[in-house]
Amino acid sequence: MSKEYRVAVAGATGAVGRAMRSILAERGFPVKELVALATAKSAGTRLDYCGEEVIVQELTPDSFKGIDLALFSAGGGTSLKYAPHAREAGCVVVDNSSAWRMEPDIPLVVPEVNPGDVDWHTGIIANPNCSTIQMVVALKPLHDEAQIERVVVSTYQAVSGTGAKAIKELLEQTPRVMAGEPVEPAVYPHQIAFNCLPHIDVFLEDGYTKEERKMVDETKKIMGDPSIAVTATCVRVPVQIGHSESVNIQFAKPLSVERARELLSRAPGLKVLDDPENKVYPMPIDAAGKDDTYVGRIRIDPTAENALHLWVVSDNLRKGAALNAVQIAELLAERDLVRVPR
Amino acid sequence: MSKEYRVAVAGATGAVGRAMRSILAERGFPVKELVALATAKSAGTRLDYCGEEVIVQELTPDSFKGIDLALFSAGGGTSLKYAPHAREAGCVVVDNSSAWRMEPDIPLVVPEVNPGDVDWHTGIIANPNCSTIQMVVALKPLHDEAQIERVVVSTYQAVSGTGAKAIKELLEQTPRVMAGEPVEPAVYPHQIAFNCLPHIDVFLEDGYTKEERKMVDETKKIMGDPSIAVTATCVRVPVQIGHSESVNIQFAKPLSVERARELLSRAPGLKVLDDPENKVYPMPIDAAGKDDTYVGRIRIDPTAENALHLWVVSDNLRKGAALNAVQIAELLAERDLVRVPR
C-alpha cells in the first residue's frame, strides 16, 4: 500500500460520513487528499480530517475529476445521480446506499465474507445494509461448516441507522415524554422514545418492509448462495447506536454449541461474548464505537433439526456502514483495484 | 354475580398490585371488602380503592381468615409460603408468580384460551407469565384452525415487567446517560437506558433464560397441547409499559393472511391493527393502559411451509398480569367456584 489516493466522501456531514472520515484516519488509509462533498446547504462547513481543516464542497457532476476513490453515504437518489458521474471520471465508488446493491454487475461486499467479489467491480461497489452486514459476518463461518437452510431474524435497530436527525429526535423526545409533554414525531411516523416501531423503510406489497427485504436478498448475494432462506422482522428501538439481532438458524448438518463457538471465535471481525453465568452477552452500549461484531446467547434450538440461536450486536455506523466501506476501500487498495476498468 | 366477595390483594403496593386494585374497581368486580396485604415495611400505607381509604396490612399466615379470594402478586417465594395458608383458610388464590404454574394439579389459565381449566382448581389458580399470556391469546384462534407446529418468538419487553423499581431505574438512568454521566445499575445487571438486555430472569443450564423457558412450557400447558414447539429469545428494552413480540409460526395446515386476519379480528381479547400503508401497527405506547392484545404485521413467511409472521403487543401490567388475574376471578365468580374444594 505505498500508493496514495485522492479520496472523496460524499455526504461528509452526515452521521455515517463523519464516521467514514474518522475511520479513514484511524486506520491510516493512504489518503493523499480528502475531499468532503455534501449538498449546497452544507457547502462551506469546516470539518476536521487528521487535524487539518477540510472545507465542504457542493456535490456536483464535476466533483470527481482527479479523485481516485469516493465513499458515498448520501442517500439512494444522490448515489443514483452522481455515482455514474464519478465512474465516468475514473473514480471508483464505494456506495453505502441501497441504490446499486442488487444490480447483477455491482459487487455487494462484506470483506470478511466475500472479499473476492471486489475483483469484478466495474467502478461501483455496494456496501450492504447495516443489519445485513453484522448478520452475515456471524453467519458465514457457520454456513461454511454446516450449510444454512433457513434464518428467522428479528432486529432491535438503533435510531442512528436513520441518521443524525433521528438521534436528535430521540434525544429531544425523551425528556418530553418523561415530563408528560406531547411529542411531535418528524423523522419517524410515531414517537420513538420509550417505544418500539415495527417499521423500518417503506412497506412492500407482501407486507414486508424494504429493510426486511434487504436482509433477505442481500444475504443471498453476499453469501453467494441463493438457497439460504431468510425471513426478517425489523424493529426500531430507542437505542442511539448499535443494532441487535435475535437470529434463529436451521442448518443442513448438525452443529454443536461448542463447535459454533469455536468457529465464531476464530472468524475475522467477530468476538464471542457468551458467558451468561457472569452476565456477559453482547449489548448495544458495549458495541458502540467498536469495530467488531459481537455474538452471544449461542444455544441449541431443540424445536427444529440442527437449529441454533445467536444474539448478534454491532455498531451500525461503523461495521454496519462506514467501517465496512473503508474496509472495502482497503481491499481495493491491497489488490490495486482503485481504478475503473475500461 | 349477585354474590359479593371479600378480596385480598397480596403485594398491593407493587406495580401489578396497583393495577389489580384499579382493574377490580373499573370492571365492577363484586367486592364486599378489599384487604390490601404487603410486607411489614409497607404495612400502614394508605391506598385508595373506589374512593375509600384502605390501609395496608402486613401479610402473615393468618391474613386469610374470612377472605374468599386472594390475588397474589408478591413474588414466587411469598406465594410458595402464603398461598397454602390462604387455601387452608378456605380462600381461593389467583397467583401471579411463577411458583405454581407448572404444578400438574394447578390450572394455568388465560380466560380467552382455556377458561374450562378453572373447573378443576383445588384452591390455587396460576396466572401465566406476561409474555406468554399475550402470545397465546393471539395463537389460540390460529391453532384451532391450522394446528401450530412451531413458534419462534423474540420479545421486546418493558421494564415494568420487573416492577415499579425498574421503571424508576429506567427513568433515573435516562437523563444521566443523556448528560454523559455514569450510571449504577441496581435492578438490572447492566444499564437499561438506551440499551437492550438479552437477559430476563435467570440463566438455565441449556443457555436459555427462565423467562424463555416459561414461554415454552406455559404455552403447551395453557393451549393444552404438548406438541406445540416453542423457542424464545427474551429481551428487555427501554420501554416503560407494553411488551412487543415478533412471532414466527409454522402450521400443519395452510393459513392465508386473509383468513388469519379474520380469525384474529373476531377472537376475544384481540384487536387487529394492521394497515401498514397508513402506518398502523401495534406499538407499546398505544397498548399501555388498554385491555386488548394488539396484532399486526400479519404476513406470509415464504421460507417455510404454512408459515406466518405476527407482531403482538399488549400492556404487560394489565393483560400480562393484573387484568388476566381479575378475569380469572370473574370466571370463578361466574361459575360459582370461589371456594376451596374439600
What do these coordinates show?
- 2 copies of one chain form a homodimer.
- With 342 residues, chain A is an alpha/beta fold.
- Chain A contains 8 helices and 14 strands.
- In chain A, the strands form 3 sheets. In chain A, strands 5-2-1-6-7-8 form a 6-stranded parallel β-sheet, with helices on both faces.
- Chain A is globular, with a radius of gyration of 20 Å.
- At the A-B interface, strand 9, helix 4, strand 10, strand 11 and strand 13 of A face strand 9, helix 4, strand 10, strand 11 and strand 13 of B.
Biggest interface and which pair forms it?
Answer: A-B, 56 and 56 residues
- SSE sequence of chain A, one letter per element: EHEEEEEHEEHEHHEEHEHEEH
Distance between the termini of chain A: 23 Å
The quaternary state of the protein chains shown equals homodimer
- The helix-and-strand class of chain A reads alpha/beta
Largest sheet of chain A: 6 strands, parallel
Range of helix content of chain A: 25-40%
By DSSP, the count of extended strands of chain A is 14
Mean pLDDT of chain A, rounded to whole units?
A: 97
Low-confidence stretches of chain A: none
Number of helices, where a helix is a run of at least 4 consecutive DSSP H or I residues of chain A: 8
| Global outline of chain A | globular
Beta-strand portion of chain A reads 15-25%
Looking across the biggest beta sheet of chain A, what order are the strands in? 5-2-1-6-7-8
How large is the radius of gyration of chain A? Answer: 20 Å
